[in-house]
Request: fold
Amino acid sequence: MSLISLKFILFMATLLILYYRVPERFQWQVLLLGSLCFYAFAGPHFLIFLGISILSTFFLMRNPTKPRLLLVFAISLGLLIFFRYSIYFGMKSIAVPLGISFYTFMTLGYALDCYDKKITPCESLPRYALFISYFPQITQGPIGTYKAMSKELSARHPFDPESIKAGGYRVLIGWFKKLVIAGRLSFYVDTVFSNPEGYGGLTLITATFFYAFELYADFSGYMDIACGISQMLGIKLSENFNRPYFSRNIPEYWRRWHITLNEWFSAHLFMPAVTSKWNKKAANGMHKLFPFAKKGTLRMILPLILVWITTGIWHGAEAVYIGWGVYFAIIMLLSFCTQSMVRSFSEKNGWNPEHPLARIFQVVRTFLIVCTGEVMFRAESMKDAFSIYRSIFTKTRLNASSIAEALVPFGNGNQAAASVLILSALLFGLFFVEFRKEQDPKAFTCHRYLYAGVFLVLTALLGSPGQSSFMYQAF
Reply:
């Protein structure tokens, strides 16, 4: 059941009525029942595998030991690998349970936190089941932690009209991002990336930029909907985006994009790897080869590579995802290894990194680096990715014929001209809103009713029908 379908609107309206009509002490039970019903719409048989993950983690972690932790990993990762990667082992394609990648992160995070004694194991199976299956976040996140969410989900939430209004307004923003911006951009992006060899460099550059905005509008739009729905229920979810395209370097970008996933990897993979004995030995060995390098920097190298290769494989076992992971591992390493030199150069030459022009340069540079990597993320194969890179560097021309060719994926004649004007206005509007939010987080909140009306009208007029699935549902 998609979060942008009429079926979901009816489901949500019914749930809200029940949620605020029952005595407050029973609200969490309504949420559990609603979450299981929501999940059953994706396929009742998928409840079996969700149940296996919930039951195994709950009972094994009541008395956390290392063998039990390893068994939890074997069960959870075993299910994930079976459904997500069995096709790569010669098996037939199998329908993947809804949100298995995301709820697996949550079960493993819970198990690790129990084992490390960061939290006390949950004593109530139904309450733990609600934590894992909570419907706004199970499909694409955010990846919640038990420590942060357990009290929120169990607390009593009296009816608050302001929460309903604020949450509903955020849902409208998410619908607008998904149906209007991402929906409009997807037509162009899909057309070009399905046949990259048939287009010139300027068209491929345009498609690459459009894909970056499509991905952001699609993914952050989902998060706006999920957080808005949860806010209507009185429950606060973790934010997953913080205007990442205004980042000034790649490490900052990844701190602002898919925040909860990066926090999960940092807490449960990167930091344990940094402090591990094997990494310390490896860093000492590298220091003998490169005595001028700082040991702290050397200790970051292998953990960064490990995290980014894992991130790439999590998205898929295709070469394009692994290449994407390797690309950002290299960029992150270069960022860490050169930051002291850049700082020293800036100080010696009077370069002020806070100057407006310097900030603009850094933001544009970071965005271009990100877009370069996203070519692999979107391409059908590494062959297509290399073909796109080659065409961009060898076939890019800025002349009338190249501009005319770049309009072709929009359609012909008036249709192309209208599409250009609409997309230009939408992207300018998105940029302006995000820029104002960057300067003032409270911007565009004083006249929510007016903005809500504008979003509804634009979504009705410009929304793309049939855009029911979100990109990250595939992961």
The chain has a mean pLDDT of 88.
